[in-house]
Design a protein that fits this description.
The protein is mainly alpha-helical. Helix content is about 70%, strand content about 5%. The protein has a two-stranded antiparallel ribbon.
Length: about 240
């Protein structure tokens, strides 16, 4: 392992051990380099790498700090992985999303506040209005779709699970836009699937919410991979 990698791992271990805490400013470069036993140039490269990982952040004119280390922030790099593999690997990412989002939706069924259940209904109403237009704005539909799913998973009670889903689903946008443009039935099918999820949540029925969420993502997954395994040739 090279000096830079060792320095990166040492700083990470300091955070794990509580020697550096979220929001804390790093010691002066000279002092930290001496503490780690590395050259200052090596430390600078390690800091740049940790900034790219969202572990550290530079505040102009103030120094370098440990970030909040929130799961959503640290897992943000996953969205880049999903993005660069979107064309060849979208089906695989959607497969994982189907497994995770079904569980998150089930967990949300007993946790989501009534006010947010009402908000979900408003998002669906907005989507149906967009879908009724002569020329459908697919980008707007995808944005409403993202808001719908994000609101649900935000109430799953597990910040890590919500962050993983957010960073995986956010990078399937192009796949969903493509689905909407290439499949004339996709928009209405998606609206029906969303309504089914919403009804299950309104009923506080975790198992129905789980099943409807899984079927919904499966539909997108199969449209991307070109396979259909349930309900007939087009379902």
């Amino acid at each position: 392992m090279g000096a830079i990698e060792t320095a990166i791992d040492t700083v990470k271990q300091m955070i794990i051990d509580g020697k550096l805490r979220p929001g804390q400013k790093l010691p002066a470069e000279k002092d930290l380099a001496e503490q780690l036993g590395v050259a200052r140039n090596t430390l600078r490269e390690a800091v740049r790498a940790l900034i790219a990982m969202r572990v550290l952040q530079t505040r102009q004119g103030d120094g370098t700090y440990v970030t909040s280390l929130s799961p959503d922030l640290l897992l943000d790099g996953m969205s880049f992985v999903a993005d660069i593999h979107l064309d060849a690997g979208a089906g695989q990412f959607l497969h994982v999303r189907r497994i995770l989002e079904a569980e998150a939706t089930a967990l949300a069924a007993t946790r989501i506040p009534d006010a947010d259940l009402a908000r979900l209904g408003e998002l669906l109403d907005d989507a149906e209005r967009v879908a009724a237009e002569t020329v459908i704005d697919h980008e707007k539909l995808v944005a409403l779709d993202q808001d719908f799913h994000a609101l649900i998973t935000s109430h799953c009670g597990n910040a890590v699970l919500a962050a993983v889903i957010h960073n995986m689903s956010g990078r399937t946008v192009r796949a969903r836009v493509w689905r909407g443009m290439s499949d004339p039935e996709a928009v209405q099918r998606t609206l029906r699937e969303h309504r089914a999820v919403h009804r299950a949540l309104l009923a506080r029925d975790a198992e129905r919410a789980r099943l409807h969420a899984a079927l919904h993502v499966l539909g997108v997954e199969e449209s991307v991979t070109g396979s259909r395994t349930y309900g007939g040739a087009d379902e």
